[in-house]
Amino acid sequence: MPIYEQTSGKKGVTAAIVAGALSGLATTVLFWAVIQPLLEMSEVPDVTGKKVEIAKSILEGRGFRIYTEDAISDPTVPDGAVSKQDPVPGQKVRKGSTVKVWPNGAGGAVPVLRNIPLPQATVMLQQAGLKLGQVTMQSSDSVPKDAVIASQPPFGAQIGRDAAVDLIISAGAGEVAVPAVKGWGRTRASDMIRQAGLAVGTIRYQFDESGELDPGIVMRQDPPAGAKAAKGASVNLWISTDVEPE
Is residue 33 part of a domain? Predict the structure, then answer.
């Protein structure tokens, strides 16, 4: 009987040791398979809106790697800043994972070029990361000749880098026909000139040797009637007088 009890006790001890070992092994496996990966998970920081160099520093500081994708056009963030990322901000992934970022390659806003001479406007477009597109000439009473009237896309519009901007350039004031004012009185002739979009220029008085004209009648005009002149140009008049020169 004593011998039997001793053998039974040894078996119990062995079983307990084996059970403990198995339990420890299971715990270790559970730790490395489930718990340890969770401990290595980290929340992806939000780097959108930040320059790529800064985003790289932030991500690498959190234990991530960064991969820069091709630039996209996104007017909502500054040029060269991160437009979007994958994984998205706040997502938990394993440390050492790669985070993809897409920088904004937009050229920015079309500069305000109104009244700017064409050569200077071309330089301003290049400085904004844009290029000159089609140039169209158009008469303008308010914009100096060879200066920008408008653009397409319009001033302030957000467009992609290297995009072409078409410009409408002033050809100067539009031309009008000079009215025929010879034979009219000075007041009426002046009104006709102004109504045509022109201005009354120098007025000279000339003695009418023929004696056929009453005083105050237009004897001559320059430019002549029917000639083309820019809007606002002056028309010079010679007015008859009955006063003989001394």
Answer: yes
